[in-house]
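[Solved] Which block belongs to which protein?

Original post:
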Amino acid sequence: MARSIPDSFARVRRLGQRTLVILLFLAAGLVSPQRLALAEEVDYTRQIKPVLRDRCYACHGPLKQESGLRLDTAAAAVRGGDGGAAIVAGDPAASGLWQRVTSDDAASRMPPEGEPLSAEQIEQIRVWIAAGAAAPSDEQPEPDPRDHWAFRVPRRPSVPSAATPQGVDSPTASAAATDVAATDVAGAVDNPIDAFIQRRLDEHRLTPVPLAERPLLLRRLYVDLIGLPPSRDELHELLADDSPDAYERVVDRLLASPRYGER
């Protein structure tokens, strides 16, 4: 009970301080009571920006800026375009955005396609502008979709050479002189993809796992492609084949098998 009295006084004091600040602003004419009330009713991030994103960005966003106007940030809307400012903080009637979304002329009304904005959306825009068009100071424009990796022209990178990157001691190179597994490690680079992996391993001073033995490789291959391990006879036959392309021929044969891809 003894602690509740000071807590109550503290709450009253904080409330009084906030009230005093508001009264000072009102007395100085910096903010009207109406604008102060409106500012608490509409939130730009939750209510205004989603409407602009859905209905305006197609013509006034990162990809296209008709009449030089962008609306993907509040700051850009204030700067406006060829027709002037889209937003004049505190004055909806002077704001190009408000004029367009409320126009009775189908040729000038925005958005030009689809249904007009709802009465609720229009009112929220009016309230937001009238309250001062507050928005986050760190708001960033939407990225240009053309910068997405999917739109970049593919370029084939040069395949890293077997040489170790400058200034990096390759663990595989040192292993070649001391480790019996070095033969397997050196033979791991069989195609361009392996070369990129090997370069990154060398950069981080990592030693790749030695190549698996042929029986294990063949078992993995069979299970991956047809879902069944090789029979004992198949395994003996495959291991007896010493030709350089023996493994590749097994891959081709399994890919051509009717069992490949079965569920």
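(Second protein starts here: sequence line, then its structure tokens.)
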Amino acid sequence: MRLTVHDVTNNTNEDMNNSSELQLPNLDTLSRPCVHHWVDIFNSNPLGLRLNFVDDSCRLAGTLRIYINLIKPVKMSLRRTLDMFPSSATASPEPNSPTKLNLNENGDENNAVPTPPRLVSFFLPRGTSKVVYVTSSTTSANAIQSLLDRFHIQESARKFALYEHTLEDSSISARKLTTTECPLLLLLNWVRISTNREQFLELLKQKRIVLQENDACDIEWKDFTTAELTNFLRILDKEECEYRNAILYQYNLLRNQLEQRMKQLVITNHVHHHHHSHFHESNEVTGVFSPVDSNTTTPTTNTTANGPIYSRYYSHSHPYALEQTTEDNQLPSGHCNCHCSH
């Protein structure tokens, strides 16, 4: 079932500013036993997420699971993937390879020009998740950068944002975390608003932290370089072309369907008109008359194997009238068909 996502960022931020119950807790103002109780409840989750105290204060560190919900492809670097292989496993370069050409006169390979990283565009599967290690002072921007580093994504962290998704009936409410908001404290706040462990586990099934593309209205374009802006324009042109082609394809498909239906109607009307005209012409040839009053004298029509036989009007003087027949059924001259002596 497809769920509807509603962005409630502005409404939730206003409610958090007006209500102290929805505000994230400040660990510096809380007692250690209180925070320890929340940590124990959080560590009882079945997802394997854990929180620990860093020192004697209330500072925390733990794991955070971030779900991926990206629509556009991202650029990933393959350099670190290739560097994981040992040098003995790599094939030796050819004599005329660029690696040999980069050697200096003394044959030192340390001064060789490094090979630029290979970038590939890749669609991250939607719905997958990644666990990152954060502290209570790690902001959402730092968590995004840590997640991009784990995937070797060569994109600016400003293009992405963390959202708090909450499942409500058949819809999802999404609230974007600010760049200074700490995701780990958000998890701790889920424990704080729960009255007991069972309620927290139910809340954990409804809430999750999701990585998505940043809204266009919230992007500070002044922070990007000319090369990045040029790349964005190229992406916009490509998306515009794809949407235009999709719209043209849909309208052309509908237009072709309408034209085919119109052709079928024209052929059907032509066949019906031709059949109707042929029917009237055949009636005139065969002599089929329209019905008249029953009191008037009407001709009778007889049929044989060779065709119709048209009878004359019956005469009052002779009860047996001679019949006008076709050539095949004509009687000899001077004889009638009444089997009389005439």
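Accepted answer:
You had them paired correctly. Confirming on the second one: Residues 81-105, 296-329 have pLDDT under 50 and may be disordered.
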